[in-house]
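The pair is listed for reference:
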Amino acid sequence: MALLTQAIRGTGDVLPADSHRWQHIEKTLLETAKLYGFREIRTPVFEHTELFVRSVGDTTDVVQKEMYTFDDNGGRSITLRPEGTAGAVRAFLEHGLHNEALPQKVSYVTSCYRYEKPQAGRLREFHQFGVECFGAAEPAADAEVISLAASAFEALGIKNLSLEINSIGCPECRAKFYDALREYFSSHKDELCETCLGRLDRNPMRILDCKSPVCKGIAKDAPTVLDYICDDCRDHFDRVKAYLDQMNIRYIVNPTIVRGLDYYTRTVFEFVSTDLGAQSTVCGGGRYDGLVEQMGGPKTAALGFAVGLERLNMIMQAQGCEVPQEKTCDVYIAPMGDNAAKMALKLATMLREEGFFAETDIVGRGLKAQMKYANKIGAKFTVVLGDNEIVEGKANLKCMSTGEQTEVQIPDGLVDKIYDLTISTSLQNLTDAIDEQFKSVNP
């Protein structure tokens, strides 16, 4: 029976007390993306398994160890999405977006699924904010996408992030790098983990991303990709850095960044934080110029990034980033008796139609219990309705913070009075804020 009341390991609930934090984060990220021309896309939670094998790469940990894959009732191999890019590329091709004006810019907030050891900020069901830009080959696009990420973090009030960038070259120049890696790691065959032994011939760059402490130690002295990239890739990378310099975006060139997915080419980048203890990647992305073609589409330059929202939320909490207060009840209407209950529902409906947060009793509480409940939910105003109020068409509107009461006509006068008091309170709060600001400047 306990299993029915426990979430599956590696998953979590967002309770009502916390949901406004997530809504704020998601809204801020999507609205920041919109300022850069990125519009929201929504893709299915599952796709054909082959989509991820071809795009993410069959030598990656994601495909080899972490995907949730199953056969559906029709015998088709289906996989819950482990990341957002593959589905966005599939939608880009399926709906002919490559035939529309380029670049096509999309953003999303989505759930993803990977079977790995659950830990702080890393769950088996997790959530990502991501952007994808199709049809922009210029280094300016790289800089703009990086700038978008920086702007989003700034909008959320996140500080102390370090941007690390690298270039892993194109498939042509990377072949020389692969040869150098094979030669280096071949001399350590007896020490490599079983997974990395399988990568040695097929994709030796994946060894650089291995989580095994032994393989990590060996990789420290491996050749670096920047020593092998071609002139075109080097020029592209230099121009990306020049754009970032022009935009006053600080960065560190980290030649060990390769990212964990096979589709990346040229520019790769990460935003990292140390506010959760060990260095933690908050955002990762880069170019994937060959992926659209690899999936059957026309040759199309593309790039993007993804941000893990669970980890982002943890960093915001660690840094004490401000989150807007959740809206509380504007008016609680406390009825006494059946006739009053009917009038209370009518008044609540009228208030809600005008955009006010209104509640009334729906569980049959007595008046004392209702007022206690109104306090708990932070109601700004209360109205008590009884037989006398119904007959006279009048009721007292009470301000819960001051105790001040105002007589209002019901039903029609309540909405107007709440509106007037709300405007008055907002203006007073603005005046107080201006006064405080003036005092701080002119003590």
About this structure: The longest strand covers residues 104-113. Residues 426-435 have pLDDT under 50 and may be disordered. The first helix runs from residue 16 to 35.
